[in-house]
Design brief:
362 residues, alpha+beta, SH3 type barrels, Alpha-Beta Plaits, 5-stranded antiparallel beta sheet
Length: 362
């Protein structure tokens, strides 16, 4: 069956300078473009979402999120632009229409940027422990808000320059001078703030880690935008600026996976050489008898000032310090018992002083 649509239109009739046929054609083009864009968005989002679930990267997820943030008014603007290209537009209307379309495009770009920032912030928060890393979460949120504000400021400046044809050089210069003055006034605060950003993203330590800063050792309780707070072993709270903290040499004990132990035993110089040869073997047996310990080496290291030194190295495979001390205590006691049974004597710090007196000649 063939359907015929007939519109009884008089060709000489014109509305706003265009015939009814031109208006209907423009409307049809606009509807087709809008529906096509809407369908493409739906299909692309569904297909990419399924593919993104199979990958571990965040790029495809971010792309899906950006496409999903494309709003309907942007499709309407594109459809109107495609539809009116075949129409006669009065010169007085061309400027407002173009500015409206450009503003729509810039607003959509701002939404894309805000959505991308929100996606990155959300992914960063998902990788953090909401119970122990609350300050890191606050820092990430603050950074996300700052980036959004900067993005919208740039969008506004571009709109003023390109859409409304107003120079923004003076405005940018004023903002630059004001920004420099403000940065000089609060440079220490900005330094600590940027250091907080580095800590949040580079993560040299997290809340709950035990770290050493120069000669100070403590457990990280809070990572703020300006300061980091540690709880020392003696109980007091240590407060350090983030900038000064990153300038120091840090040791993170929480990320140890094993602890190295260096054991020095000093024997008397009168010890028989055959006994010296057997001592490293004894020490290896003692160390290997402990659970969770990896023996590295044991040697007669050298001649000290008043002793013969035996050097032994082993690793405790548990980073817990209490476990390390338990193993070290067990090894020390076993050495005392074995040396007592073998009658091997430890050296004591001694110093021999020889006095020589010359005779007096009358």
């Amino acid at each position: 069956m063939t359907l015929f649509f007939y519109f009884p239109v008089v060709e000489t009739t014109a509305y706003l300078g265009n015939s009814p046929k031109a208006w209907l054609t423009s409307l049809a083009i606009a509807l087709v473009v809008y529906l096509a864009l809407y369908l493409v968005q739906s299909v692309v989002v569904n297909r990419l979402s399924k593919l993104a679930e199979k990958t571990d990267t965040d790029f495809d997820d971010a792309l899906v999120d950006v496409i999903r943030n494309t709003r309907g008014f942007f499709f309407v603007a594109l459809a109107i632009y495609a539809g009116i290209r075949g129409l006669y537009i009065h010169p007085r209307l061309i400027g407002p229409i173009e500015k409206t379309l450009e503003l729509s495009f810039l607003f959509q770009v701002g939404l894309w940027a805000s959505g991308l920032v929100a996606f990155l912030v959300r992914r960063s928060l998902e990788k953090r422990d909401h119970a122990s890393d609350r300050i890191g979460i606050a820092a990430v949120n603050a950074i996300g808000i700052t980036v959004k504000v900067i993005s919208w400021v740039l969008i506004v400046l571009v709109a003023i320059q390109t859409v409304f044809d107003k120079p923004v050089t003076g405005l940018i210069a004023g903002l630059g001078v004001g920004g420099i003055a403000l940065a000089l006034a609060v440079q220490n605060i900005l330094g600590d703030l940027l250091a907080a950003v580095a800590i949040v993203f580079d993560r040299p330590f997290d809340v709950g880690d035990t770290i050493q800063v120069d000669q100070l050792v403590g457990k990280v309780e809070q990572i703020g935008l300006k300061t980091t707070r540690l709880r020392s072993a003696s109980g007091e709270q240590l407060i350090m600026g983030n900038g000064e903290l990153l300038k120091s040499r840090l040791r993170n004990y929480k990320r140890m996976y094993e602890r190295r132990a260096l054991l020095h035993l000093d024997l008397e110089y009168g010890t028989d050489p055959s006994v010296i040869e057997r001592v490293p073997v004894m020490l290896r047996q003692i160390v290997e008898s402990q659970k969770g310990v990896r023996f590295e080496r044991s040697h007669f290291a050298g001649f000290m000032e008043n002793a013969l030194r035996i050097e032994t190295v082993y690793f405790v495979l548990d980073p817990d310090y209490s476990r390390f001390m338990d193993v070290q205590q067990a090894i020390n006691i076993a050495i005392l018992k074995r040396f007592a049974a073998e009658k091997i004597a430890f050296a004591f710090p001694t110093r021999t002083v020889e006095l020589k007196m010359s005779g007096l000649v009358e």
